[in-house]
Design goal:
Layout (H helix, E strand, L loop, with lengths): L4 H6 L13 H5 L12 H10 L12 H11 L7 H6 L9 H19 L7 H8 L13 H26 L5 H18 L1 H9 L7 H4 L5 H16 L3 E2 L6 H18 L6 H15 E2 L1
Antiparallel strand pairs: 1-2
Length: about 290
């Protein structure tokens, strides 16, 4: 029996492989049928309208509808990794912050794998969350803002831990307070190696000087600068260029922690404590 003209067009017209549009926009415009993709906007809308678990009436030829019907027949069990990841339950109105957190978690996990901003794919992030790629831009203006938001979560946590350590030291001993902050930094790094690598070893796209001032690492550097200022007010003098002193502290700590982590020696945190003492002796004098 001959096929209809519509079927021939979908299958390539001459019995060849089905013609499938490329790109997100083309997928979203694809007709529902054998060429329908479950991730397209139109297909998701039809799935919600005609393939709900209550009705279990699949769209003809639609992979998403068949998955929902199969899920109902299986008692609501998991259908498959691809369908489960793509069909995302829409957040209730006013809960956009929840979607933002999901995007951040997905981007953080992928960044830990690829190791650089350039290698991070927004399409991969969207696929992990189960949304269309343009939806990311409702929360982040570009990929750089997304990466910085991922890093900010960890820098804020580290800054909070260092602030608590500062408060636990004697209030009238500024050097001891700075030492407590540096020791807390070391403890955070060795307790959270994956997060620490994400913060300090993720290759990031260069930006202009004005935008760079908003980088989340500024939290750390400003905290170190305030601690050094307090030491100066207590009578200590910073050797070298004052403006570079916070960077010298950070670079020295990071380099020592990196060697401590990778070298085949017994992991004794006390070695890091001694290094902090030596570092402060080199940087500050009375």
């Amino acid at each position: 029996m001959s096929r209809s003209a519509g079927e021939g067009q979908r299958d390539g017209g001459d019995g060849g492989p089905p013609v499938r549009a490329r790109g997100d926009a083309a997928e979203d415009a694809a007709p529902v049928g054998r060429g329908c993709h479950v991730g397209s906007v139109r297909c998701r809308a039809l799935i919600r309208a005609r393939c709900s678990p209550a009705a279990a009436v699949p769209v003809s030829g639609c992979e998403g509808g068949a998955a929902v019907a199969e899920q109902k027949q299986n008692g609501g069990g998991t259908v498959g990794a691809a369908a489960e990841r793509t069909i995302r339950v829409r957040n209730p109105r006013g809960q956009g912050e929840r979607l933002r957190e999901e995007i951040l978690r997905a981007a953080g996990g992928l960044l830990e794998q690829v190791g650089s901003e350039d290698a991070l794919s927004l399409r991969a992030v969207a696929r992990e969350v189960g949304i269309a790629t343009p939806s990311i831009y409702r929360h982040f203006s570009d990929k750089t803002e997304l990466v910085w938001a991922v890093l900010a979560e960890h820098y804020e946590r580290l800054a909070g831990i260092m602030s608590e350590a500062d408060g636990s030291a004697p209030a009238d001993d500024q050097l001891a307070r700075l030492r407590s902050q540096l020791t807390a930094y070391c403890r955070f790094a060795i307790a959270n190696p994956a997060k620490y690598r994400l913060m300090c070893e993720t290759w990031q796209t260069p930006v202009d000087e004005e935008r760079l001032h908003g980088h989340p690492a500024g939290l750390l550097l400003r905290g170190l600068s305030r601690a050094l200022t307090a030491c100066e007010e207590a009578g200590w003098r910073v050797r070298g260029t004052r403006a570079d002193a916070p960077y010298m502290l950070w670079c020295a700590l990071h380099g020592r922690i990196t060697l401590w982590q990778v070298m085949p020696r017994r992991k004794d945190p006390a070695r890091l404590d001694r290094f902090v003492d030596e570092l402060l002796d080199l940087l500050l004098e009375r």
